[in-house]
Design goal:
single chain, alpha/beta, Urease, subunit C, domain 1, TIM Barrel, 2 domains, eight-stranded mixed sheet, four-stranded parallel sheet, 15 helices
Length: about 450
Amino acid sequence: MTELTLPQLAERTDHTAPLVLLGRLWNGVDEHATEDGAVVIEGERVTFAGERAALSAPANALHVRTGGTLMPGLIDLHVHARPGYLAWFVAAGVTTVRDACNSLETVKHMQALALKPRLLPAGPLLDGPDAFFRHFGPEAVHRPGDGMERRAGAWVVDTPQEARDAVARLHGEGITQLKLYEQLAPEVYEAAVRCAEELGLPVMTDLGMLSTRGLTGARVDARQALALGVRTIEHVSGYALAYRRMGGDPLAETLDGTLLDDLAGLTVEAGTALVPTLMIFATLASDEVFDTSGVPLANLDDAVQASLQSQWQRVHAGTAPVRHLARADLRLASELLTRVRALGGRIGAGTDTPAAAFNLPGGGLHQELELLTRAGLSPLDALKAATSQAGQILGRPDLGVLREGAAADVLVVRGDPLRDLRATRQIAAVVQGGRVHTPAALREAVVRQGAEAELARSS
């Protein structure tokens, strides 16, 4: 038996030998951890995860006593990824991200990067002719077939047939889910959902919140989306509009529990998951700068961090007039997600990073877990929202778990996250697809990737 330390294992260039990681094991599902556990990795898959006493390791396996807790790599279900900070996610233990909106050109570029989380892209979102994305410049919005659509983050569709054609085009481009936005007409929205269903594409949707355009620009509310069977509703969007259409006032200090119970029941009956992204409300709701200290890479000093911090300072200052709306969004989201969970519904963890303010790529997910518990979820449910539950939401039962056949994505942390949720921030190593990375090596890679992206952007 060959025994190595984590740094020694990370330095190896031969990745053919099986790996045996020893330590406390939480498999992403169970209520309790296995104190003396083991995970065997062969290639890019887990071949064993359980009690060390039951381990029968291959003779040529490399053994590592981690001295920490072995848990599944984390999943962020809502990000807006960019090449310059893609490696940040891996450095924070986030081994899979669902990219909520990007141009096809950007997706192609990111897929070619060596160090990145598993990227599940939506490509361009679909929206109506008054798409909000027009505020991001003329390149941000195009119509499919106009010759410029590969550069656009949003595609405009006016009719049901245009929606069906766009969905078919995106499916052919290899996207993993379809994103539908707030200003689609109801009949166009329905056509897109029906076509996506025929093609096997899950639908994620943003229908607007109080702090955006959820009571003004949105055409479809949460009840309508639920009736069509969308896979996930992002930001608990569309619920404020549905609540108002049901006769309630979403800005009231006290919300109507009966109406909320009705909405939660409809959500669970539809089998739709909520991805509340509480980070965007929490950062906007506070008059003070949001405290990111203690999360991975919070103290990184490079061009990417400087650019993001500058952006966030402007966003935070510019959104002061909607602080009260962000607080109302946070209240509505918290009330709904706890009701949905109490009924056995699904909650997934997502951040919307780097949107809003002070929402670090990768690091923001650790803060989202804490916000989920403040909203009323148990620490176990919060952890599942970023592991096994997230994998189920993605339709990927091999992600977010440690068991035979699962993807070999392992986060090694100091401490026990089932007892102290902040232990997820104390990263000892990240294993992605069977490759072991130390925090120091990841930090170096993050700085290098950011510098390369900054050089490409300025040239």
